[in-house]
């Protein structure tokens, strides 16, 4: 099953807001629908956003206003604008050329995820590994297999995975809802833990490596990823546990010099104040909802891409 694909004359994507209860494929025929799907995280994760951006340019049929809106639908993941630009570079050659370019983005992502899985598994030392991860960096965040969770899948296929500790990832619970769903489907042993348990479990020696994805990697290696990643990096440094970022080259943004220049998406405070429609805090409580944080490059042991291993 592919998370996102082109089908006839529309984009088809798994609606991730409904998982794990229901696995429903959404057919998206207009840029407005695609932008709405991106904003409500029906499609999410940096590589999948790159493919959505590229396929969305086909839906835009050359309209610059729609292409600009799509490009800016979410600010932090570098891949969205990158995917839009890769397809839009062929606008003058006509729709078929744009579609071919968008399908190349999809196919390149599938190949990149496979390559990252192999490279990441080769890099990690040890026969039996206990991995900690945050958010969802699996097939649902890409087209197939994913980035950090793609490494987990490769480790599992090689018989080298003891267990994954998946952080639940408040407020939208990508870890609890999506990562556990994917790990169960691949038959990989896993347990769900509260986000705040991450650094403690690292300190206790329960983890051999932290593997995370990335939304944007600045030129100096500073890396934006789901909120909570920075706390894990600090905990991993203190515990002497490798902290490894797995992301395609398309997530590296040489135009952004450092993490300070990365735009962090602020999402609706309601996502903090409620869980699936149930209010948690007293009426009138204010909330802050940064969706990502930045891990400085000196806390990162290695960045694994589809082409290389970078050691900041
Ligand atoms: O807000 P989301 O769910 O789009 O955030 C996704 C993440 O933070 C992922 O870890 C990141 O995109 C890398 S996915 C391969």
From TrEMBL:
Keywords: Amino-acid biosynthesis, Isomerase, Methionine biosynthesis. SUPFAM superfamilies: NagB/RpiA/CoA transferase-like (SSF100950). InterPro entries: IF-2B-related (IPR000649), IF-M1Pi (IPR005251), IF_2B-like_C (IPR042529), Initiation_fac_2B_a/b/d (IPR011559), M1Pi_N (IPR027363), NagB/RpiA_transferase-like (IPR037171). GO terms for molecular function: S-methyl-5-thioribose-1-phosphate isomerase activity. The keyword Transmembrane does not apply. It comes from the Bacteria. The active site is at 215 (proton donor). Gene3D superfamilies: translation initiation factor eif-2b, domain 1, Translation initiation factor eif-2b, domain 2. HAMAP family: Salvage_MtnA. This is Methylthioribose-1-phosphate isomerase.
């Amino acid at each position: 099953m592919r998370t996102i694909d082109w089908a006839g004359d529309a984009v088809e994507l798994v609606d991730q807001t409904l998982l794990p209860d229901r696995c429903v494929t959404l057919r998206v025929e207009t840029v407005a629908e695609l932008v709405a799907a991106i904003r409500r995280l029906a499609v999410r994760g940096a590589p999948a956003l790159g493919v959505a951006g590229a396929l969305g340019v086909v839906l835009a049929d050359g309209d610059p206003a729609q292409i600009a809106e799509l490009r800016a639908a979410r600010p932090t993941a570098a891949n969205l604008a990158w995917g839009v630009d890769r397809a839009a570079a062929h606008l003058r050659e006509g729709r078929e050329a744009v579609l071919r370019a968008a399908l190349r983005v999809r196919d390149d992502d599938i190949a990149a995820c496979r390559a990252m899985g192999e490279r990441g598994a080769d890099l990690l030392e040890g026969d039996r590994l206990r991995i900690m991860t945050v958010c969802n960096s699996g097939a649902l965040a890409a087209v197939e297999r994913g980035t950090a969770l793609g490494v987990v899948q490769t480790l599992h296929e090689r018989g080298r995975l003891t267990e994954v500790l998946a952080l639940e990832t408040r407020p939208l619970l990508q870890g609890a809802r999506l990562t556990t769903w994917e790990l169960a489907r691949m038959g990989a042993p896993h347990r769900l833990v509260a986000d705040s348990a991450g650094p403690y479990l690292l300190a206790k020696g329960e983890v051999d490596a932290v593997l995370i994805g990335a939304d944007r990697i600045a030129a100096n290696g500073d890396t934006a990823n789901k909120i909570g990643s920075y706390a894990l990096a600090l905990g991993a440094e203190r515990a002497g546990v490798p902290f490894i970022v797995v992301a395609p080259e398309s997530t590296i943004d040489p135009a952004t010099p450092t993490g300070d220049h990365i735009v962090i998406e602020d999402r609706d405070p309601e996502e903090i104040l409620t869980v699936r429609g149930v209010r948690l805090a007293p009426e009138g409580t204010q909330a802050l909802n940064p969706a990502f944080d930045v891990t400085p490059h000196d806390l990162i042991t290695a960045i694994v891409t589809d082409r290389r291993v970078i050691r900041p």
